[in-house]
Specification:
Length: 426
Amino acid sequence: MTRLRLAGRRTFASLRHHRNYRLFFSGQVISVAGTWMQNAALAWLVLSLTHSATAVGVLAVARFGPYMLFGLFGGVLADRLDNRKAVMGTQSIQLIAAASLAALSLAGVITLGEIYALAVLGGLAQIVDTPSRQSLTYQLVGRAELPNAIALNSTLFNIGRIAGPSIAGVLIAGVGLGWCFAVNAVSFLAVLAGLYLMDPAELFPLKRRGRPPMWEGLRDGARFVKESPRVLAVIGMMTVFGVLCFNFNVLLPVLAKQTLAGGPQTFGIISAAFGAGALLGALVTAALGRASLKALMAGAACFTAAQLALAPLRSTSADVVLLFLTGVFFTVYTAHSNTYVQLQSPDHMRGRVLGIYYYAWSGLAPVGGILTGLLCDWGGTALAFYVAGVAGLAMITGGYLYLNAHPAQGGPKTSGVPVLPSASAA
């Protein structure tokens, strides 16, 4: 019982200790659910208009294409800007995009071109939002509790992943797609209120070195990653995973509508199953309050193995179980990789390194979205899951060999990687 109480205290340490983080977390809980509602509704709307998995893949291009073109510069901007104010601006732009989708959908005049254009607008905001929001997390809780806060961020992300598509399924079936976009637009007000109410004096200061010029700053960030073998390995693995293994925004609507011959309720159920697993993985990671390469590699291996197991399934109940497990290992992998990269980066470079990291995750997503859509059109979701699983396991093997060839100075190799500082020290 004592151990359970201690684990519970560690799980929510960042929320207990930092008022600014509580404000951030509270706003994000509401907004992330709205974002997942919109993501589900957008994919369903495009699939309903076109009956094409490839068209859903093109939606991924619209959403992530701006990041593919300009995402690396977002990290440099994050190292130049006030992170709190930058996030307020990017969240406002996303509010405008969601409100526009709602107005056009509710009026019954929305077209495929307008969907793609508004997805591009949201993608442009993400260029600055992603590294700025991650750097802001560091300022909200400090270095010692960063692993815990990142895991809690994953928790709220996956609460939204569960609640959003489930609510979206009900709204789509009951009152129509447009209300999903309207609810998302309103949800951004919670984020903006939390950011506005923060006390800037309580933010942990960053040790920055002036305002890096765009091209020079980008080169410095790339040089740091290149000269940090373990950061390079983690980002290299994320590149393959981001392109081939994380395309659930394309896979799940196709799995529900075509493979399982279901409707929006089925889509909501399987999306919620993945999200529930991801939520459990986030809570476990938050309770551990630490990050290690061993956990990162184990999570990645189990995640890809689960995708291989999903490939031949044609049963909704079996898919729900496997997607739950896939979600658990997805969060274990991503939370540890995010934390590891942040803790290995100096303050003045963190935004740029995060920009490169999230470029590996999201910047190449348009390529992955199109490829996954084509694979689904050619061989169904089975082919897409098989390709993702095989590619992921191949990259894990390469990453393991590379990490063993570059052990931490003065420490053992991957099999005994030293654990990073605990987030539960307080």
